[in-house]
Specification:
- This protein is an all-alpha fold and 155 residues long.
- It contains four helices and no strands.
- Helix 1 packs antiparallel against helix 2 and helix 2 runs antiparallel to helix 3.
- The chain starts with a helix and ends in a 44-residue tail after the last helix.
């Protein structure tokens, strides 16, 4: 009676160990037949399948292959994350720089007597003389109190 219990436990242990070993082994390193075929053999012939797996199918000179993660464990170890972070920082700095330049241009346009929404002229470019067009200037005479030179000085 004790012999049968020990034999049943041994068969169960060999079957479970062999099946878990087949499942954990990478399919590219199995020998003999493919990994799914080894699983079928293990289920159909529990003891014989486990013995065949351990003798024939298992990769030689290697422990069961551990699952390796394809991504780093921490974000600061991931080069793609760091590259993306640097690109976001540069984009934000460029956006801030452009906003500052736009605000300065609008402030200068207001100081020159124009409105902030109209800009130097309707096309967004300045005339060759450095003065904006469409600001009420006629023949070189200024109608406002602001100096029309590029210095930005107010009279």
């Amino acid at each position: 009676m004790l012999f049968r219990v020990v034999l049943a436990v041994a068969v169960l242990v060999i079957f479970v160990y062999g099946l878990v070993d087949v499942i954990r082994t990478d399919g590219r390193v199995t020998r003999g037949i493919s990994k799914p075929a080894w699983i079928v053999v293990m289920i159909v012939l529990p003891v014989l399948g486990a013995i065949l797996w351990l003798l024939i199918g298992r990769p030689r000179d290697s422990a069961p292959v551990r699952q390796t993660h394809s991504h780093p464990t921490a974000p600061d170890d991931d080069p793609d994350f760091l590259r993306n972070l640097e690109m976001r920082r540069r984009n934000k700095a460029e956006a801030d720089r452009l906003k500052k330049l736009k605000d300065e241009l609008e402030a200068k346009a207001k100081a020159d007597g124009g409105s902030a929404g109209t800009g130097p002229d309707s096309s967004g470019t300045r005339s060759p003389g450095g003065k904006g067009t469409g600001h009420g200037e006629t023949g070189g005479a200024s109608t406002g109190d602001a100096d029309t030179h590029d210095t930005g000085d107010v009279k």
